[in-house]
Amino acid sequence: MNAPAKPRPQGRRAVRREQLSDEVAARLRADIMTGTLRPGTFIRLDETAAALGVSITPVREALRTLRGEGMVQLEPHRGHVVVPLTRGDIEDIFWLQATIAKELAATAAERITDVEIDELERLNDGLAAAIDRGKTEDVVGAEFLFHRALNRATGRIKLAWFLLHVARYLPGQIYASDATWGPSAVATHREVIAALRRRDVDTVVRLTSGEFTDAAQRLVDRLDEIGLWT
């Protein structure tokens, strides 16, 4: 008598499918934010799936996510089309990020320990090394680790979670590939670290705000350069 067949690991497969959907959404979101996918462009399921090396299902789920975010809309019998991205949209996105980040920065300056500050210094050195290597993915990852450590030092996990989700709209690749952004970011981080050691709340908040002002301007300049709004 044959043994009963073992059930397939549906849960694991579902998790992987969700991860793929998130990865596709992140890629499409970055392409929309940087103007690679311009307003009015139709995103074809089969073409996108082939380009990203995935099946159609995660692309369809990613587009559903982006539709909920107002980045694409579904036109009957035609498919998903990229929604116009305005200067006001950019300002709103960065305003929200900066507002949350400044609140976290103020808390970090009050609560962070010397050990956590030392860790920030190590992570910033790692960012500098990644910039020297010139590999965009490494730079994006190193920048993420620095800010994650800073935000975790606040103990305000829920607020940090909100910032993480808003930060999805910040296309890290365009900053990491900008030759002038890297040295500026490392230098600003060093100033932040010095201010944290002094428990200088005002300076930490001011520097944090400046990072987002700079990031917004760099993105607007890029979109102007490629003629997104002409």
TrEMBL record:
Domain spans labelled HTH gntR-type: 18-85
Pfam families: FCD (PF07729), GntR (PF00392)
Entry GO MF terms: DNA binding; DNA-binding transcription factor activity
Keyword DNA-binding tagged: yes
InterPro entries: GntR_C, TF_FadR/GntR_C, Tscrpt_reg_HTH_GntR, WH-like_DNA-bd_sf, WH_DNA-bd_sf
Annotated keywords: DNA-binding, Transcription, Transcription regulation
Protein name, as recorded: GntR family transcriptional regulator
Gene source species: Mycolicibacterium moriokaense
